[in-house]
Amino acid sequence: MTTRTATHPGPFAAAAPAARPIPLADIAPWAVFAFVVALILLYFVSTEQGAFALFDGMYVHEYVHDGRHLLGFPCH
Amino acid sequence: MTRSLLWRGLLAGLVGAFIAVTFALLFAEPQIDAAIALEARHVMPGMAAEPELVSRATQKTWGLFTAMGLYGTALGGLFAILFAALHGRVSRLSPRALSLLLALAAFVVVVLVPAIKYPPTPPAVGLHETVRLRTAAYFAMLALSVLAAVAAGWTARRAHKLVGVDRLLIAAGVFVGVVAIGQLLLPVIDEVPADFPASLLWQFRLASIGTQAVFWLATADLFGRAAERELARPA
């Protein structure tokens, strides 16, 4: 009776024993890379030619217009 | 290992975004068109309409695909890194289950909570002069939500002496508490024109949040399947 939880681990329990974690030293450089890439991509989708502008005109703003509204970023 | 997970995350995000676009084309674009039609009616007769830089046809196809694709790729990559860091550390969940739960958390933290304070707005809502304030406020809200989630995770880790349900409750309490105080302090932004139809606003916001839900669900499932195969491979 006391080990009920162990015999009924629930729908989200793993089939296999605990997996070995990926060493953080292996993750760190890729984390930095992913973060920088995400920052650049998200800047152009969310903010360029809105609150800030690296390029003149409104072309980028108008091009991603619908996505910007839909994703909830402040647009006009 | 991280490299292959990241690659799969970027790809899953891109494909997930394209799946979300099909939803958006069906449910959100009609609302955006209706809002633009309203906006056009507000332009005074006789006043020259602004020249159309990018046609509506381009905006709702190539533009939407590009914006969503970039967004999906960026978020998919970050998602993969978070997954790599949490896999095997916080729980014994299978890769697919961890991926889905992580996406649910991401949807709440990145989409729902910021949208409670600053909901997505259709065209014709929002003053051009305040875009800087609104951008700063929106990103502050987003950062606050992420910080609150980190604080909740940290609390759950510290409260390891409690049983699972209590840890969950305490973590949720920390998250909701930090978010609620932050939302109280951040500036109120209400720029919906008085004659903007409430039903259109509701439909747009529902479609916008639905698009995000489709994106996160599709991305998490695609990534979870790929990650499960990848992690099962002998190293």
TrEMBL record, chain A:
Highest taxon of source: Bacteria
Keywords, in A-Z order: Membrane, Transmembrane, Transmembrane helix
Listed Pfam families: CbtB (PF09489)
UniProt-listed InterPro entries: CbtB_put
Sequence intervals crossing the membrane: 27-45
Protein name in the entry: Probable cobalt transporter subunit (CbtB)
Species annotation: Sphingomonas palmae
TrEMBL record, chain B:
Superkingdom in the source lineage: Bacteria
Residues of the signal peptide: none
A UniProt-annotated Pfam family: CbtA
InterPro entries: CbtA_put
Positions of transmembrane segments: 61-86, 98-116, 136-156, 168-189, 201-223
Keywords: Membrane, Transmembrane, Transmembrane helix
Protein name stated in the entry: Probable cobalt transporter subunit (CbtA)
Provenance organism: Sphingomonas palmae
